[in-house]
Amino acid sequence: MAAQTKAKFQASMIPLIAIMTALTTVLTMLVKLPTPTRGYLNLSDAMIFFSAYAFGPWVGGVIGGLGPALSDLLSGYPQWAAFTFVIDGLQAVLVGLIVRKFRPANIIAGSVIAGVWKVFGYLIAGGILSGWGPALGEVLGNTGQMVVGLVIAYALFAAVRTAYPPLVRMGNLGVQPAVAIPQDYTGASADTGTGANVGADTVDDAAERTETPDSDRPSGSVN
HSE on the CB side for 21, CA within 13 Å? Predict the structure, then answer.
């Protein structure tokens, strides 16, 4: 039973990863501001943070690494692709591992820590590719990109999660909501089959009952 559930979960994640990776690639390519190290500033952080919030460290890490790396290859910056895959992928993994509950303080703290890693990572990569002078000149720009991405991602995630509360279960299985969500959401009640008015049950609890109808359901563990 557990093996079937795991296989189904992995199979269901493949289209999600493909769609989110393509979206991340496109959005990263929409805004490109050239930098002294022959790289560019972009909106990749917004999608990296959002993917990590919504889908956890491992799924978010794949999306966060592949999307910007593909953008480098398609935009004529192939020398950056390998660095981008590692730096941005680890950025998403860090966010997904640190942010265990959807509270503003947790999300901001985890994102800032991961953002500091990204700024440091691109400092090292820029130093290797173009020298330390130009790389140091990009620290401020990369920091600004991280802050803008955090603001956009937080606002986007809050809006999407308000519109669709079960987002908390889509890949990021170990994260619990900060507050109980009434089970009068029609989509959640349809999934659980328990009716439209269940009271103070959370979406996570309902999803766990749906995924594991047996009494030995897991307590939840985590891109």
Answer: 17
DSSP code, position 174: T
Give kind and range of the element (H or E) at residue 9.
Answer: helix 2-30
157 vs 177: CA distance, rounded Å: 13
The one-letter amino acid at 104: P
CA 65/CA 46 separation, integer angstroms: 13
**Cβ atoms 189, 84 nearer than 8 A:** no
Residues 6+ apart with CB under 8 A from 222: 56, 57, 58, 96, 97, 172, 173, 174, 175
- Give the pLDDT confidence of 187-198 residue by residue, as tens digits: 444 444 444 343
Instruction: Name the nearest CA neighbour of 66 among 42, 89, 39, 93.
Output: 89
pTM higher than the cut 0.85: no
List b or e across 157-188, with b for residues whose CB sees 16 or more CB atoms inside 10 angstroms. beeebeeebbbbbbbbbebebeeebebebeeb
CA separation for the pair 45, 114 (Å, rounded): 10
Q: pLDDT tens digit string along 47-82?
A: 999 999 999 899 999 999 999 999 999 999 999 999
At 216, the amino acid letter reads D
